[in-house]
């Protein structure tokens, strides 16, 4: 596989937060941080967080957080103060009025600073686990949180559990004969004119490269060659790690949808992709927060 340009990360893949993982084992780290007025807290309710502006998160002091949150230590800001997450179930109405309203990661993630984007995806990835996995999957007992929100220990069977991450590949397909054509697919759950890259989870005992070949064959009916790794991005819906690839079709004419998950596949010209990225015409492409958007825009700009 060809290595990607390490200076050009997908929007949610930057190293924006020092996770200070060694501090998670410090006794009372969460209590200490919550008592520190210089600490900053990112609230997450469902998949939304408060905004200071359309392109910046609204961080609050620990004493401004409503009661009954699940807490986790996210790491340290470059200035040294602690960054925490306070997690809630989806709330309607909002927990409080934020200066820029509340926004979901899908809609605002692509416009955030590297630090805010990294913190949001980290907090949201933890949020689902903190709220949805309180019981031991082995014996069913209620677990206790440890490592500042990063582990659970079962008091009954003694097992220790950690947040789960599921690897998945996502692939943009270039033409075998025309460098100015890109194959995208439309999912059955989407509206008309919405197209994106092909994606699927890695199966047990399967390599990433094998997953690329299998998923594209299943969803788009084609064989691919020249598989090139382009980067990765956490995608907490609910707990995926998306590994992006570019591959080349062996036979363009073989492309066809599976008719189940994918209801349409289509070869797009570079001009059509450019119009879609600019929000012009009928074509609807993935939002800027997604690695799918980066795969498509890199190809369009000749970076792939």
Explained architecture:
The structure is a single chain. With 304 residues, this protein is α+β, with helices and mostly antiparallel strands. The protein contains 6 helices and 15 strands. The strands form 4 sheets. Strands 10, 11, 12, 13, 14 and 15 form a 6-stranded mixed beta sheet that branches. A 3-stranded mixed beta sheet has the order 1-5-4. Strand 2 and strand 3 form a beta hairpin. Helix 5 packs across helix 6. The radius of gyration is 21 Å and the shape is globular. The two termini are 13 Å apart.
Structural class comes to alpha+beta
Count the DSSP helices. Answer: 6
Strand composition percent? 25-35%
> Helix coverage percent of residues?
10-25%
- Largest beta-sheet characterization: 6 strands, mixed
Number of strands: 15
Give helix and strand order, one letter per element, not per position. Answer: HEEEEEEHHEEEEEEHEEEHH
Mean pLDDT: 94
How far is the first residue's CA from the last residue's CA? 13 Å
Q: Could you list the spans in which at least 5 consecutive residues all have pLDDT below 50?
A: none
**Overall body shape:** globular
Radius of gyration over all CA atoms, rounded? 21 Å
